[in-house]
Amino acid sequence: MDVSNYKEKYGEPKTLEEILNYCAFLRGVRCLEHRTLREFDWFVSSLIFGKTEYKYTMTNLKSKDPKSLEYKLTKRTAKDALKIYKKYNHIYNPCGQDSLLKYARAFLKYCEKEYGYNDHG
Q1: Contact present, 114 and 47 (Cβ < 8 Å)
Q2: In this predicted model, what pLDDT tens digit does every residue of 88-104 receive, in sequence order?
């Protein structure tokens, strides 16, 4: 099933559950898998803590050797979180009763960009 067929069958995702299910579909899993929830958790954490988390992570690395695998992976993860923060935080800085839904909408935009879908098909 492609994206247009998905939206014909299920409609435009509006609720938190619909958005997360659609993101799971975009990621190539049939239903809401734990990996999609894990990525949503990482995404929201990046939105909230991305800037300070990057500084903290890079300051407190166990291995200071830039050639070590731990250093490379930790730095990459921290940089990815910082990119999410910079790209989406100023637009989706939620406050109020619908903040989780706002995070989900930001995650939807991220998934559409990250996994290759755009409005032009």
Answers
A1: no
A2: 887 766 677 888 898 99
Give the whole-angstrom CA distance, residue 35 versus residue 109.
17
Give the tokens for residue 28: 């190539």
C-alpha distance from residue 101 to each of 29, 47, 57, 64, 74 (Å): 21, 14, 28, 39, 29
Q: Which two tokens stand for residue 74?
A: 């930790």
Distance from the Cα of residue 98 to its chain's centroid:
18
Tokens of 9: 């069958």
**62-82 per-position pLDDT tens digit:** 777 888 888 888 888 888 888
Please tell me the distance from the alpha carbon of residue 6 to that of residue 54, in angstroms, as a whole number. 37
Which helix (H) or strand (E) element contains residue 67? none
